[in-house]
Amino acid sequence: MTNSFYETLICSNCFIDEGLRLEAEQLGKSDSKTCPNCQSTLGKKLNYSNLNELANIFFVNGSIFRAEYGASNTIQFNEHHYKMSDLSPAKWLEQDLELISEKLKVGFFHYGPRLWKVGEIEPLKDLQDKNSREKVIGRIIEEFPKTTVVDGTNFYRLRKNPCISSNFNEYDSPPDRYLGCGRFDSKNFPVFYASQDLDICLHESRVTVEDELYLAKLALTKPITVLDLSESIAENGTEFESLSIAIHFLFRAPSHSYEILRDIAIFVSKCKLDGIIYPSYFNQVSTSYDTIKNIAIFGRPISNGLLSIECINRLILKHVEYKYNFGPAAF
Ligand SMILES: [Zn+2]
């Protein structure tokens, strides 16, 4: 790279597209010099590496689409496509796209994802097919580690709008009439959900500032053995055959995955295991690695004495923070 790498190329005020301008303000640096492109002194200045990052955030990450399972970006850029862009941006983005392409000497193009990224994974397809599901669940139980969680281990459980907040049973698995709505529970198969990470508890419960919230601290009264689906396992094959990626996509997917997860839970319980540790969709917000992100314990562990309540607090949400990036509306 030449020594122009750190030189200001453009500034945030060079852009017409509002999302791009706001992203550029986040990435650029303030200085009183004049922008070599638009002569503004007030815009945040971007060098080559800032501009490259901006292009990645806005065009690559900003063009992500979610498949039923998995996700992929639909725009990519590189120097081989310089002056050969095949995008059709909105009119407010045309000039900005041209400017970035020229400054980075790259071209932006429609990108065909590697198909495993959008769910073309054999074990995942077999899980979606009721005829082959059981066989894959057998492999999952066989290949993922079983972990003992020792007695005394603490978990948090958050309750929204309980009738009587001091009633311990309010913190147990939901009553029969509500079963079959969660990730792992089904009719006649109650499941208790908890976490050691308070932020994940809040995210998973999808709470709002209007909710009346109570947090219970619980402790295991005896050791339990659970299947740990948050661990990655050693595999020899390609991504297209990966059981780990299949599991990862299953937990990242919305509620259409629950039908499969409920069958997994029933099979795991038949293998005399007490529950499942599973990854959180909100892993990225978590700060500690040693905590159990999410645990599902089969049955009603509070009423059957497996979990004791050590403390209940009211929890008051101060505010809910949104984090966001921008992407193109059309391409
Ligand atoms: Zn400028």
Which helices and strands, and how do they pair?
Blueprint: E1 10-11, H1 18-27, E2 45-46, H2 48-60, E3 64-66, E4 71-73, E5 75-78, H3 91-104, E6 107-110, H4 122-128, H5 130-143, E7 146-149, E8 154-160, E9 191-194, H6 198-204, E10 213-220, E11 224-228, H7 243-252, H8 258-270, E12 275-278, E13 294-298, E14 307-315
Parallel strand pairs: 11-12
Antiparallel strand pairs: 1-2, 3-4, 5-6, 7-11, 8-10, 9-13, 10-14, 12-13
Helix pairs in contact: 1-2, 4-5, 5-8
The site of zinc ion has 9 residues, from strand 1.
Return the string of H and E elements: EHEHEEEHEHHEEEHEEHHEEE
Radius of gyration: 25 Å
Structural class: alpha+beta
Kindly identify the CATH topology of the largest domain. Answer: Diphtheria Toxin, domain 1
Task: Describe the sheet with the most strands.
Answer: 5 strands, mixed
